Amino acid sequence: MLDAGYEVIxxxxxxxxxxxxxxxxxxxxxxxxxxxxxxxxxxxxxxxxFASQEISxxxxxxxxxxxxxxxxxxLDYYNVNVGGLIALLAAARDANVxxxxxxxxxxxxxxxxxxxxxxxxxxxxxxxxxxxxxMSEEILHDMELANxxxxxxxxxxxxxxxxxxxxxxxxxxxGIPNNLFPYVANVAxxxxxxxxxxxxxxxxxxxxxxxxxxxxxxxxxxxxxxIDHVLNGGPSFTVNLGTGMGxxxxxxxxxxxxxxxxxVKHELVGRRPGDIAECxxxxxxxxxxxxxxxxxxxxxxxxxxxxxxxMNPNGLEGI
Length: 319
Ligand SMILES: NC(=O)c1ccc[n+]([C@@H]2O[C@H](COP(=O)([O-])OP(=O)(O)OC[C@H]3O[C@@H](n4cnc5c(N)ncnc54)[C@H](O)[C@@H]3O)[C@@H](O)[C@H]2O)c1
Ligand SMILES: O=c1ccn([C@@H]2O[C@H](COP(=O)(O)OP(=O)(O)O[C@H]3O[C@H](CO)[C@@H](O)[C@H](O)[C@H]3O)[C@@H](O)[C@H]2O)c(=O)[nH]1
Description:
The protein is built from 10 helices and 13 strands. It is of the alpha/beta class and 319 residues long. The two termini are 29 Å apart. The chain is globular.
């Protein structure tokens, strides 16, 4: 967004990020965003930010996002993800800001009956994290019903991976990664011993799970298009942000080995509870509505992830 000429104001409690990111952003763009450290549920802080800044649109990312953890700590997830959204919407309403882009997820499709997944497919969440995303979409629809002037973009991300090509910004999970890409990256660099491939008996090409991995820079550019759309007066919309291509776990492992020149040690184990066989996006609507298409392929994702990992072998603040 900075590169596209927007002025950016950030709010993050840094519970899953680092203040160091701001300097990295400045190194890449030549501009430092205005930044507030705080909780999105802090109503007084939100009021102060809306009163002191000129805000034309909101992009709401702040959330807890680990599916497994959400089963163990459901109240934390409803509190941050749903409570945070409500606090932000109330402050936005009071400040008369009605353009809103929301980070939704392919998880709202549950276990889709067929692939590729279209935006009009039925929604169905299978865990508390997914339910927070579904509830959030419902709350936002109600905001639109209550006041048709609201322009809301519901962006359903598939599997964001990779890093900025500079190697300065990337994924730095705290603790042992849950997700495939950061796990593979840490095995390749030698921080972790071996990848467990969860399930090799799915009805897919090679028996392992298939997902639609999307490069984070393509995803970021999708957000710029979404902001452009609502600022130009476009109506509310829901779109998938994916590449439209599905890759299996073993295909990802092989691509990462090629990009890194390292062996990614792995073993086939049983399925992970709650996982589905195959999920990838129909991306026609995003292309029609937003004139957006992902440009980067799996090798770009692996190469950029590997550059980030080699430049930051222990992540941003150490793993
Ligand atoms: N990564 C994925 O696979 C994926 C897929 C679909 C949707 N999403 C959604 O995209 C959004 C961003 O995800 P991400 O992968 O960049 O995760 P992330 O954890 O890197 O980003 C979320 C940010 O929110 C901050 N945060 C958490 N709780 C907060 C609070 N109470 N107040 C203020 N800030 C808070 C964290 O510090 C973090 O910087 C989330 O809403 C997530 O649910 C992610
Ligand atoms: O150590 C691992 C981690 C993952 N996988 C497999 O890799 C694939 C991708 O898994 P993961 O990276 O954990 O992503 P998903 O389970 O698809 O879920 C992600 O993508 C969803 C959107 O599609 C988001 O809603 C979730 O928050 C996000 O975690 C799946 O087949 C997993 O079984 C492994 O085999 N071993």
